[in-house]
Specification:
Structural class: mainly alpha
Strand content: 5-15%
Number of domains: 2
Strand order of the largest sheet: 1-2
Length: about 220
């Protein structure tokens, strides 16, 4: 994992995600919501916090294209490029939908994640890619496993290990993907620029460990 900086909220996010979502919640607790097209939603709870998470309208999916553009198609957790057609992008709610309703339709709560890591994460609470620091996660270049950084200790190291486990970052497919990117670069089949755009964590670790090819620069 590498640090991800929060991208600005898209101009149409409020209209396409937040307001439709909040209006839906209002209807689902029996409040009067602004007039809209389509059938009226039935009341299913007395309070917003009592609405089952599986009943929440998935307006967050309207943000997927914006997330892909804002974060250059890089999964916030694996640090790997989400390919069109063959890759599946998803919206991960850092604060789970089942936890606090008022974060459900908020841009700041969304992390771009490949569908596989999102489904594996479930309601676990790994470290936030927006808050981690460089050096917390390292990559060993034999089996391409993600490890806690050498300078981490105590509770931080435990949280990093828990995050690696929660996200299954050392599953064989993820290790194979990292190995492929690294070996393709080291064999000069792809450029350093391509590597940085498609596997920035791998690129950073090759640089940190002195494996940047001559003439590639940073």
């Amino acid at each position: 994992m590498i640090r991800v900086n929060l991208a600005p909220e898209p101009p149409d996010f409020d209209r396409c995600v937040r307001q439709p979502g909040l209006n839906a919640l209002a209807e689902m607790v029996g409040e009067v919501a602004p007039v809209r097209t389509g059938p009226k939603r039935e009341k299913i709870a007395d309070r917003r916090e009592d609405i089952p998470s599986d009943k929440l309208p998935a307006y967050w999916r309207e943000a997927i294209d914006d997330l892909l553009r804002a974060y250059h198609r890089i999964c916030a957790y694996t640090g790997l490029y989400i390919y069109p057609v063959t890759g599946a992008a998803s919206v991960d709610h850092l604060v789970a939908k089942s936890s606090e309703w008022f974060h459900v339709y908020e841009w700041y709560n969304y992390r771009l994640a490949c569908a596989r890591v999102n489904s594996g994460k479930g309601v676990k609470s790994p470290l936030d890619p927006f808050e981690i620091e460089d050096g917390w996660f390292e990559l060993e270049l034999v089996g391409y496993q993600v490890l806690p950084g050498a300078g981490t200790h105590g509770q931080l190291r435990a949280a990093i290990l828990a995050t690696i486990e929660a996200l299954h970052l050392n599953d064989a497919d993820y290790r194979d993907a990292r190995a492929t990117y690294a070996e393709e670069y080291l064999q000069q089949h792809i450029s350093g620029d391509f590597l940085r755009r498609h596997a920035p964590f791998v690129a950073r670790e090759l640089q940190r460990q002195g494996r940047v090819l001559s003439g590639e620069g940073r």
